[in-house]
Amino acid sequence: QVQLVESGGGLVQAGGSLRLSCAPSGRTFSSYAMGWFRQAPGKQRDFVATIKWNGGSTYYADSVKGRFTISRDNAKNTVYLQMNSLQPEDTAVYYCGASSLWVPLRTFEYDYWGQGTQVTVSS
């Protein structure tokens, strides 16, 4: 069974940093675009960042541009989200997704999801 497993979440003070990892199991995702979304309590799941299958292009939500960086290591079958200058409004469950589309920016464009990792930013 295909699974995406996120890790690296936790509690951090405002201004701090975290790095999330997503390691698929059950198959390789080197030909898939990979993305990160987040969902705060009572809100919809929002796009954060996505990266093409070859790492050649990345796209970010305006709210995280300049603070977050998405990257991937296909040799390790892992995608990362480096989050700097974290703010309380970044608090959410962060989800990793895999998509067979070229530039997937919406939740329904993703084929596989992880179970999420909690990120909490204290003020």
Polypeptide structure, described:
- A hairpin with a 4-residue loop joins strand 7 (68-73) and strand 8.
- The strands form two sheets. Strands 2, 4, 5, 6, 9, 10 and 11 form a seven-stranded mixed β-sheet that branches. Strands 1-3-8-7 form a four-stranded antiparallel β-sheet, with no helix packed on it.
- Helix content is 0%, strand content 50%.
- The radius of gyration is 13 Å and the shape is globular.
- It is mainly beta and 123 residues long.
- The protein starts with a strand and ends with a strand.
- It has strands at residues 3-7, 10-13, 18-25, 33-39, 45-51, 58-60, 68-73, 78-83, 92-99, 112-113, 117-122.
- The protein has no helices and eleven strands.
> Biggest sheet: strands, sense, closure?
7 strands, mixed
Estimate the global geometry from the Cα principal axes: globular
Tell me the number of strands: 11
Share of helix, binned: under 10%
* Portion in strands: over 45%
**Helical stretch tally:** 0
Class by alpha and beta content: mainly beta
